[in-house]
Design a protein that fits this description.
222 residues, five-stranded parallel beta sheet, 5 strands, binds BIS(adenosine)-5'-pentaphosphate, cytoplasm, EC 2.7.4.3, adenylate kinase
Length: 222
């Protein structure tokens, strides 16, 4: 930068250099700036993963589940994974930094294949949502699967007969439900105030639920 002229003129040149480096002025990672994100929220066993698989099949989104990413980290045998496993076995939320970093890295790996992401099981507390939107990209909307505690419990107990998951047992399911009501419900209230939530009654059959999901997804431009 030629720096003989006034400070203001020099600064204009400096600013041009930064602009040309395509740094997002909001501080977001430029790699993910065009991503389109649908948050998938609901209690444990509300059918988030099941419906995401159907959305992928029909619409070709990239499905990233925070729970799956965390379980992959646990399975890797890393030190961080061992700590995560204990938290998950207690039905509590793992640290926000851990889960946000895993999600961001996973999105970057997939962005060249698709811009449309189903971010499943995230945000689970309000700050997860606000940080994601500040550091990555604002969400297009939130799909919320509304199911009673009784139904979620019976689905998970049934799955627990074969899943081998450390958290599909009666005691941890109770704790997961508590965590959902105390920490995740405020997320739904927050995005409802922004008119971004589509609440899907999800007690029925997978097919009937997907009919509603499909209507919502089709009503947006992706
Ligand atoms: P995570 O893996 O996200 O688990 P979850 O949200 O508790 O619930 P699931 O994923 O088990 O259920 P789902 O809603 O996807 O239902 P699914 O389709 O599988 O998280 C696990 C843990 O990781 C957390 O407790 C936490 O510790 C940690 N974690 C994850 N994300 C985090 C975050 N963002 N921040 C911090 N910590 C985080 O269906 C369940 C069962 O029901 C299946 O067997 C299915 O076949 C059946 N089913 C589905 N739909 C129907 C239907 N319509 N009728 C009958 N059965 C059905």
């Amino acid at each position: 930068v030629p720096a003989e002229s006034s400070a203001d003129e020099v600064f204009q040149q400096v600013q041009k250099v930064f602009d040309s480096m395509s740094l997002d002025k909001s501080g977001r990672d430029p790699v993910l700036k065009d991503a389109k994100v649908l948050f998938i929220v609901g209690g444990p066993g509300s059918g988030k993963g099941t419906q995401c698989a159907k959305i992928v099949e029909k619409f070709g989104f990239c499905h990233l589940s925070s729970g799956d990413l965390l379980r992959e980290e646990v399975a890797s045998g890393s030190e961080r994974g061992a700590k995560l496993k204990d938290v998950m076995a207690r039905g509590e939320l793992v640290s926000m930094d851990d889960v946000l970093q895993l999600m961001c890295d996973a999105m970057k790996k997939k962005i060249s294949e698709t811009k449309c992401f189903l971010i499943d099981g995230y945000p689970r507390e309000l700050e997860q949502g606000t940080r994601f939107e500040k550091e990555i990209v604002p969400c297009v909307g939130v799909l919320y699967f509304d199911v009673s505690d009784e139904t979620m419990t019976s689905r998970l107990l049934k799955r627990g007969e074969t899943s081998g998951r450390v958290d599909d047992n009666e005691e941890t399911i109770k704790k997961r439900l508590q965590t959902f009501h105390n920490q995740t419900k405020p997320v739904i209230d927050y995005y409802s105030q922004q008119d971004k939530v589509c609440k899907i009654p999800a007690e029925g059959s997978e097919k009937d639920i997907f009919a509603e999901v499909e209507k919502y997804v089709s009503s947006h431009k992706w």
